[in-house]
Amino acid sequence: MAGATSNDASTWQELSDQLASRVLLLAEQIRPALDELERHEDVPKRVRLLYDIDHGVARMRRLARDIQVLAGKSLNELGVPAVSLLDVVRVAASGIEYYDRLCVGPIAERALLGHAADDVASLLAVLLDNATRCSQAPAVISTRSFGDGSLLVRIEDHGPGLDPAWVDALNRTFVRPVPPMSAVSGRRTGFAVAHRLARKHGLGLALVCRRAAEATPGRQGPQGTVAMVTVPPHLLCDLPEPAWNVGGGRILDSSRAAVAPSSGVRARTSFADDVSAFSSVISSGSANDAGGDQPGGAIT
Predict the structure, then answer these.
(1) 3-state SS class at 112
(2) Lower CB density within 10 Å: C or N end of the chain?
(3) pLDDT above 70 covers what percent of the chain?
(4) What's the CATH architecture for 79-298?
């Protein structure tokens, strides 16, 4: 924490990490009992209640991991198999409150290396949480592949939007080294988590405001935000067989979210070029970012 002595900061980091680890352990201990109950329950109302509890445990796990990230104690998932991008999206969605407001667009048929998959899911969960929290209109997540082997994840919402000056300040922060936690950053811990995870894995991270003139003619001020994450080629690989359950996260069944494959590829030079390019097409909705298919449907 800014303003604290190094000993005080170290003590709080250790305490936060210990408490977060205990919460993660509790979440893992709850899972077998929940799985057993879900397997043997056939009353729809009770099944729904069990799923709600399951969802709460997933959110609890995400919160504990975020605390570890802020404490500088995030784990390296060594020896974990590669995870499909679709499964990473599902794990991210399971950690947010309004997952039913998420629409999955075209997702590239690629996979993330195991040591980065859980962190990328945590980063996407931050952005998806922000995208779905302030608007009942579906937020759309999709991907776009580039000729150099990298990939862009795009999350678009139709909420009230963020202050453009604050978004500019955030984008300037995202390209700099991670600052210590402070009273200001402590009020928006999600972006602090996203910044740390992006820097850890060399991911590009930026936000763009959608203008009301582009989204709804006649309205004034910003309306909605587009969040973009660029994944470098060295973190990507071919799809694994079979799909893996990321770090204990709950992967939703594929039948519950229709997803179109991605095939579109174009050349790019830098993440800054991506921000510029996507700023110019925000008003179109860009449902065809990864090959021209329309978003498949909400995760439910």
Answers:
(1) strand
(2) C
(3) 69
(4) 2-Layer Sandwich (3.30)
Of the candidate ranges 27-41, 86-100, 205-219, the one whose mean pLDDT is the lowest: 205-219
Rounded CA separation 235/46 (Å): 40
CB 285 within 8 Å of CB 156: yes
Is residue 83 within 8 Å of 211, Cβ to Cβ?
Answer: no
Q: Which residue has the tokens 């770090």?
A: 247
Question: Measured in Å, how far apart are the chain's first and last C-alpha atoms?
Answer: 38
Is the Cβ–Cβ distance between 132 and 139 less than 8 Å?
A: yes
Report which of 66, 181, 175 is spatially closest to residue 122, judged by C-alpha positions. Answer: 66
How big is the chain, counted in residues? 300
HSE, CB side, 13 Å, CA atoms: give it for residue 117. Answer: 33
Bridge partners (DSSP) of residue 83 are 112
d(CA 176, CA 240): 34
Q: Residue 278 and residue 270: Cα distance in Å, rounded?
A: 13
Q: State the DSSP code for 281.
A: T
Confidence of residue 17 (pLDDT cuts 50, 70, 90): confident
What's the CA gap between 202 and 134, in Å, rounded?
29
**Pick from 132-141, 255-264, 270-279: least confident:** 255-264
What pTM was computed for the model?
Answer: 0.76
List Cα–Cα distances, 233 to 79, 88, 201, 267, in angstroms.
Answer: 19, 16, 11, 13
Domain boundaries, the chain: 1-75, 79-298
pLDDT bucket at 291, cuts 50 / 70 / 90 = very low
**Facing residues of 140 across strands?**
103, 156
Is residue 253's pLDDT more than 50? no
Q: What is the DSSP secondary structure assignment for residue 185, as one 8-state letter?
A: G
Per-residue CA distances from 232 to 99, 121, 150, 237, 281 (Å): 27, 15, 5, 11, 23
The per-residue pLDDT for 264 is: 37
